[in-house]
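Supplementary notes for students who missed Thursday's class. We covered one full example, reproduced here. Read the sequence, then the structure, then the short commentary at the end.
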Amino acid sequence: MSITLQDVEHVAGLARLDLSEEEKDIFTGQLNAILKYVEKLSELDTDGIEPTSHVLPIANVMREDEVKPSIDVEKALLNAPDDEDGQFKVPAVLD
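Structure (token representation):
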């Protein structure tokens, strides 16, 4: 598979990019180099290799939920610019 100048122009048009002729040539070469490198991966023997979503065997890294004491309401509201009935009071944003 190869990227042509027309492919680059098509994608640039979809992305609404105004590329100079020099940029089009540069991107064509760069994209072809990327595809050439990716084609090397097809040379690898992957028989017997299980597909993975991550390179390392990671188990659930989330900690267990634990009930812990929370901060007192009075402490939480100490630095609040305004409070009312134990809640932060903010300016209304809806009419």
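Commentary. DSSP finds three helices and two strands in the chain. The helical segments are 5-14, 21-41, 73-76. If anything here is unclear, bring it to office hours.
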